[in-house]
Amino acid sequence: MAVRITKRVVDSTAPEPRDRFLWDGEVKGFGLKVTPSGQRVYVVQYRTGGRGAPVRRYTIGKHGSPWTPESARDEAKRILARVTQGDDPAAAKQHARRDITVGELCDLYFAQPVIVTKRGTPKKASSLTIDRSNIDRHVRPLLGDRQVGSLKRMDIEKLQIDIAAGKTANDVKTRKQGRAIVRGGAGTAARTIAVFSAVLSYAVAVGVRPDNPARGIVLLKGKPKERFLTEAETIRLGECLERAGRDGVHPSAIAALRLLALTGCRKNEILTLKWCDIDAERGFLRFADSKTGAKALPVAKPVLDYLATLPRVEKNPYVLPGSKEGSHFVGLQQVWETLRAEIGLNDVRLHDLRHSFASVGADDGSSLLVIGRLLGHTKAATTQRYAHLTLDPVKAAAERIAGRIASNLLPVAGRDRTVRCELRLPQDLVATATARAEIEGRSLEDFIAEALAAHLGQAGAEPSPTASRSLGATAGG
């Protein structure tokens, strides 16, 4: 009979000639095993399939620190949750009993039915493809045959250095007419170590090793890829898209490029955009799923007006329909590579259209908070790459201040260095000077300048003729 397993029940259950099992009345599958020698062990029992599937039994641990009835029951719930996701904890533990290789560990990691991100959401298929590629092209060639238990921190640090140095560089044939150029570099090394650290954390979770040797390693910083289209380049791109439309380029490709530039969306967000995602009344694109989860993206009226001009294909929910019935357009990268070559933008990636959208916002005076909201960033740090673009008002002030100082400080050929000053003289002295100037047939300014020059000469100064001629006088009280 099932009873709730408590410390009193554990202590009072007597051993028998054979293993004795007591099953919990609260969590189905959680139980206590009492051996003939009196050992008390917490277990969890489950099936990985239907009623016909064999029963698997997983040992949680012996009664006593750290396992109490409460902590063992919580662990049983966690294990049973893994089972509902298609995992087999007992099989994973059997693998852990022998020292598997790094390659085998990676196979187990990617064989999980669901890999959860730090945000608690399932990792997307596109992200998993990139993760698997980094492991296959960088970790397996260098550490694939190593025993997981033998890895030390210095091995992970060396792995990062070797990838950054291009030790895993290769030219890989991906399909019949495809290839991948593997170069390495600091950015690739950092991303690979981040993925490998997740693999090693999985190794700790399933008991392959007690710690994660990649934890705490300082990741290298790659060269930031900051490429923004200038206004002239944007005009060239617009003209190129018009020509491409006349030349028969797929209309969905042209529309995709325009929408990427106009919205700052990610490529897959635009390619998978459906008509039902467009909230024209409120001015939003509502994505049920994106890299950062569900989001509503505000868009401008010109974008909505442009979307309204795009034709709808019957029985196809996508704004950018592909060649196959009911599908969205694919192959944008190939179209982009052809078009950008025509206008000399070979260094511009599709993702740089997103950066360019943000750069225009920064140049227009939008704050980083607003730019991050427009791009759908969930972390402020992600938007920091555009911080230097929002300093234009500060830069303009620096230009004005330094410009005034430079006009007097820095030598420039042909600069007028005349010193001009205003003399405020008593009215009677000005009247006397005016009379003397009239008698001698000279202007008042010349008369005063000559008198001042003579005075300065007596004091030991040598005024320049230019300085003497530039002096003026004003009668004052």
Write the layout of secondary structure elements.
Layout: H1 7-12, E1 20-23, E2 30-34, E3 40-47, E4 55-62, H2 69-84, H3 89-96, H4 102-110, H5 125-143, H6 153-164, E5 170-175, E6 178-182, H7 186-205, H8 231-246, H9 251-263, H10 267-271, E7 278-279, E8 284-287, E9 295-298, H11 301-309, H12 332-342, H13 351-363, H14 368-375, H15 380-383, H16 392-409, E10 422-426, H17 427-440, H18 444-458, H19 465-469, E11 472-476
Parallel strand pairs: 10-11
Antiparallel strand pairs: 1-2, 2-3, 3-4, 5-6, 7-8, 8-9
List keywords for this structure.
four-stranded antiparallel beta sheet; disordered C terminus; 477 residues; three-stranded antiparallel beta sheet
SSE pattern: HEEEEHHHHHEEHHHHEEEHHHHHHEHHHE
Distance between the termini: 115 Å
Q: Order of strands across the widest beta sheet?
A: 1-2-3-4
Q: What profile does the largest beta sheet have?
A: 4 strands, antiparallel
Shape: elongated
Radius of gyration computed on alpha carbons? 38 Å
Instruction: Extract low-pLDDT stretches.
Output: 386-391, 463-477
Structural class: alpha+beta
Task: Say how many strands there are.
Answer: 11
Helix content: 40-55%
Average residue pLDDT? 81
Supply the number of helical segments.
Answer: 19
What share of the residues does DSSP label as strand, in percent? Answer: 5-15%
